[in-house]
Design a protein that fits this description.
heterodimer, A: 6-stranded mixed barrel, 6-stranded mixed barrel, 52% helix, 17% strand, elongated, B: alpha+beta, 3-stranded antiparallel beta sheet
Chain lengths: 854, 120
């Protein structure tokens, strides 16, 4: 309102002024018309005066901004195709960028919501033996108690160990992640309770996560004091954690926290040699780290003296876990943002190209406006506003895409039956990142065309035919952009090809077992009505499954190769003439390894009568007897004498990237609690037996839960290593194709601009007798030259990186002809396709029309 | 256009227009056209105001609170916007003319040092 009045007043003021001057001029003897012209000349450019006066008004900037936004909308409406292309390019870059950033945010950037995190450290053990299998050792619960009893440098110590476990919830069972903690865990970390008092003093209690509370307990505030049965033992709910506390691990988020001493696993936890716990310690303010470290070492020495059997070689040290996480987070985020930046740069380059072409088209309009008094700042601002509106639209579309991706992503992550709660969402940091993307992109593709397009160039701008010359310098800039885009697309597609190669190489790696065998794997846990773990009669289940028609052989085992974590147990190995040491091992049923296709190199597989027999792998056999006579020898495992009955080939139990470790396999009991895997060898396709197997397992062991049921080859596909490789490959492909799409749009744009700029010249040349096809060839080849430069640049970047990576991954070679040829062919084909359409316009040139229109 | 010789005209120094407007308004409220004319006339037509450029200056002075706009009636008996010096404007004029005197004195001393006749 006020603004309009001001405008009107200014208008009237100026009109009055000119009227008065005119009257004065008439009084001096001029004719009325002459008088008015003289007055106007003397006054100067009315539009510029208004503009300058408006810029004095305080709110003017906001108001003209709105006008600029409206203007930008109108201009975008007039060119929907170009606008759509630009918005789509941006959205294609924004969606994956924001999604990946939210993943990084969730995994790396979200700080632990603890009080004074700088005071928090971890206490760990280090094995001092030079040939120790694991140099770092975690802490057992009794050791934690010793530390807590003796250490004075810390104001508090907290213990935590996680497990997947079954709980009975009213009438149903659920698999949850349980974290066993010391009862002062929450107070030492300084994490407040969301609801309730926390752990109760007088009876077994637990704390549930906010997520568990919302999902399983419907977010009822009166759950405090209610009873939850965990593996058969009733626990009162003492508290609900706050929504932002998801435990101290980034990926495994506990659903329940239970004090270690009332947990169902305490009988196991109280053993001094059951390590795997994390000890968080809060430094007392003012105590130097060196002093605390010395004290930890001293206490560990005391333990080594007192408990030589378990602690003889262990020394204690302080590990700054949170600082380490911060370092990793910084590195990962920097690399991630850089990679995503490439994609964004491609999109921005593309939009810059589009806008530059429009700046050229609008050279005439700009020149007219400058002649009428529009200042350069004003013109530049309009461009930047238009870019901001463009990138806001792109961002809106991109964010919508990102929110779909975020919902879809957790489903891609294999959970191995564990309830892994990974959710990605828009946190404040993600919003900030998205905002930064909008600003950076708006400025990057807004300023260049704005500066070029608003350059004062009245004379040539006003002459329609020479609008070309306004942007003469831009040709190398745009060409460089295209070269960079082609290079980026080539880098990504080449990487995707290499990842694909690496994946197929993994299929041919010798894993030890044979993933092509027609075998189904069924893993189950048996629980009673109350949630207690029941024993499973392995033999009974085995016999039942063996009666299914088409089943050739059934075997059971406690640990399956390639299960990510490494699975299995640790044996203390004593052999004559050798230093006692620990080796990895597993308990498996008769013929389990043969069923999986693990070759027995000498001797035989385990049989039901081999209570005192053991299998060793080739590595361990070599270590025990380099001469090759390991079969028949006797060794001690955990104190019991066992005879080696066979040697099996080295098998990948944990990760394919680990070097082989010596391993021993002993006979599993015929019935036990815990989880067990049945390997069912069938005739034909094992996938066809899934429903039958599920039914038979349920009938054989009522109350059991089948955690996973899949074929052996599926097991390989689902393994963490292959999953990560596949993810990398998919990521490279998706990003590469996005980059390619953007590059194609850019090439299309530059070729179209080239054609527009020189159409008159082409027309004249055709009129003088040049063959249109020849000219088209010239237009095409100028685009293809850029593509070739880009390809060369891309390979120059990608190849050294690939060579460096190759040294770290088995089965990976950068000298991959398919990866190289295919990626280059795809990029080249896309370039030709993109440039051909505008180039073909040469064929449609009607020389007479064009020459006449000028 | 004015009849005075083109060579005799002087461009405005940055910020001097504001001072001249204030000085003109010291004599009493005036509308825009009158201010422009007063400046031209009082400088013996040496200073040629591009009259339009007066308006951004006037609005700038209003924003700083040195002058005030009000409705009034011109000598030709028509309604016009009159600009009046405020108390703060009067004080500012004092400051500005003090600065101007110093500036002019300094330039003069450089251009015509004492005891030396300029041969310009």
């Amino acid at each position: 309102m006020r603004r309009r009045r001001m405008e009107e007043e200014l208008e009237r003021d100026i009109a009055d002024h000119i009227a008065m001057e005119t009257e004065d001029n008439i009084a001096r003897g001029m004719s009325p018309q002459e008088a008015r012209y003289a007055a106007l000349r003397k006054f100067g450019n009315v539009a510029r005066v208004k503009e300058e006066t408006r810029s004095v008004w305080r709110w003017a900037s906001l108001d003209t901004l709105l006008a600029d936004v409206r203007h930008a909308f109108r201009r975008m409406q007039r060119a929907p195709g170009v606008t759509g292309l630009a918005v789509l390019s941006l959205a294609l870059a924004f969606a994956p960028s924001v999604t990946m950033f939210s993943v990084m945010d969730r995994l790396f950037l979200t700080p632990l919501p603890v009080r004074a995190p700088r005071e928090l450290v971890q206490i760990q053990f280090r094995d001092t033996r030079p040939n120790a299998q694991y140099s770092n050792q975690s802490v057992s619960y009794p050791e934690f108690q010793d530390f807590r009893g003796s250490l004075r440098s810390f104001s508090g110590l907290a213990y935590q160990r996680g497990n997947g476990t079954m709980v009975a919830l009213n009438d149903r069972r659920a698999l949850v992640i349980m974290s066993m903690v010391s009862e002062d865990y929450f107070s030492v970390l300084g994490v407040p309770m969301g609801l309730g008092p926390g752990f109760l003093k007088n009876r077994p209690s637990l704390i549930v996560s906010h997520r568990f509370w919302m999902r399983e307990l419907e977010g009822h505030p009166d759950v405090i004091g209610q009873t939850l049965s965990v593996e058969g033992q009733p626990h009162a709910i003492g508290g609900v954690a706050t929504p932002d506390f998801r435990g101290t691990d980034a990926v495994f988020c506990p659903d329940l926290w239970i004090p270690a001493e009332v947990s169902p696993r305490y009988s196991e936890l109280k053993r001094r040699d059951v390590r795997g716990g994390t000890v968080w310690a809060r430094l007392r303010p003012g105590v130097p780290l060196a002093q605390a470290a010395a004290e930890v070492e001293g206490v560990a020495h005391g333990m080594a003296r007192e408990w030589p059997a378990t602690n003889q070689y262990l020394t204690g040290y302080i590990y700054d876990e949170l600082a380490q996480r911060e370092r990793v987070a910084t590195k990962v985020t920097a690399i991630g943002v850089l990679l995503l930046g490439i994609l964004l740069a491609v999109a921005c380059a593309n939009v810059t190209g589009i806008l530059l072409a429009r700046a050229e088209e609008r050279g005439h309009e700009t020149a007219i406006r400058q002649a009428l008094g529009a200042s350069r700042t004003r013109l530049v601002r309009e461009w930047v506003v238009e870019s901001a509106v463009l990138s806001t639209f792109g961002a809106a579309l991109g964010l919508a895409g990102a929110s779909v991706l975020m919902k879809w992503l957790p489903g891609l992550i294999p959970s191995y039956g564990l309830p892994v709660h990974l959710e990605f969402s828009f946190g404040p940091r993600v919003w900030l990142y998205a905002l930064a993307l909008v600003c950076v992109s708006a400025l990057s593709f807004g300023l260049v065309p704005a500066w070029r397009g608003s350059r004062p160039n009245l004379l040539s701008g006003l002459r329609r035919d020479s609008a070309v010359s306004i942007l003469r310098v831009r040709v190398p800039v745009r060409s460089l952009l295209i070269v960079a885009q082609v290079a980026a697309a080539e880098v990504l597609l080449f990487s995707a090809g290499l990842a694909f190669d690496a994946l197929s190489a993994v299929r041919h790696l010798d894993l030890g077992f044979d993933p092509q065998r027609p075998v189904a794997l069924a893993t189950l846990v048996a629980t009673g009505e109350d949630g207690t773990q029941r024993q499973v009669d392995y033999e009974a289940v085995r016999n039942r499954l063996a009666r299914i028609g088409g089943v050739r052989r059934v075997a059971y085992g406690r640990s399956v190769p390639l299960s990510g974590s490494g699975g299995g147990v640790t044996f203390r190995l004593e052999a004559p003439g050798k230093e006692p040491r620990e080796v990895m091992g597993a308990y498996e049923g008769p013929a389990f390894l043969s069923t999986l296709g693990v070759r027995i190199l000498s001797g035989r597989d385990l049989e039901a009568s081999d209570q005192h027999g053991v299998l060793v792998d080739a590595t361990l056999a070599r270590q025990l007897d380099p001469a090759g006579g390991a079969v028949g020898r006797e060794i001690r495992l955990d104190g019991a004498i066992r005879q080696i009955v066979g040697v099996f080939q080295d098998t990948v139990w944990g990760s394919i990237y680990d070097s082989p470790r010596p391993r021993a396999v002993a006979l599993a009991p015929t019935r036990s609690g815990g989880d067990v895997t049945f390997a069912v060898e069938v005739a034909g396709n094992p996938g066809a037996y899934m429903a039958t197997l599920r039914g038979e397992l349920a009938a054989a062991q009522p109350g059991s839960t089948v955690i996973s049921l899949k074929t052996l080859s599926q097991h390989l596909q689902d393994s963490l290593d292959l999953f990560l490789e596949r993810m990398a490959m998919k990521l490279f492909y998706v990003l590469g194709l996005l980059a390619l799409l953007l590059t194609a749009a850019g090439l299309h744009g530059i070729t179209a601009a080239l054609f527009a700029r020189r159409s008159k010249e082409f027309a004249i040349r055709i009129a003088l007798g040049a063959a249109p096809r020849q000219i088209m060839g010239a237009v095409l080849s100028s685009s293809l030259k850029l593509t070739a430069c880009g390809l060369a640049l891309g390979l120059a970047i990608a190849f050294p990186v690939a060579v460096m990576t190759a040294s770290k991954l088995p089965g990976f070679t950068p000298w991959s002809v398919p990866a190289l040829g295919l990626s280059s062919a795809i990029v080249l084909a896309a370039a030709i396709a993109a440039a051909a359409q505008p180039a073909r316009r040469v064929l449609r040139i009607q020389p007479a029309d064009i020459v006449r229109s000028e | 256009m004015s009849t005075s010789d083109e060579k005799e005209r002087v461009e405005f120094l940055q910020g001097t227009l504001d001072m001249l407007v204030l000085r003109t308004l010291l004599l009493g409220p005036a509308h825009g056209h009158a201010i422009a004319h007063a400046i031209e006339r009082n400088s013996d037509d040496v200073l040629q105001v591009e009259q339009g450029s007066l308006y951004p200056a006037l609005h700038r002075l209003i924003r700083r609170g040195w002058i005030r706009a009000e409705e009034g009636t011109s000598e030709h008996n028509r309604r016009a916007k009159f600009y009046r010096l405020t108390a703060r404007g009067r004080k500012q004029l004092g400051i500005e003319s003090g600065k101007w005197d110093k500036f002019v004195g300094a330039i003069a001393r450089i251009m015509r040092p004492a005891g030396q006749e300029a041969d310009l």
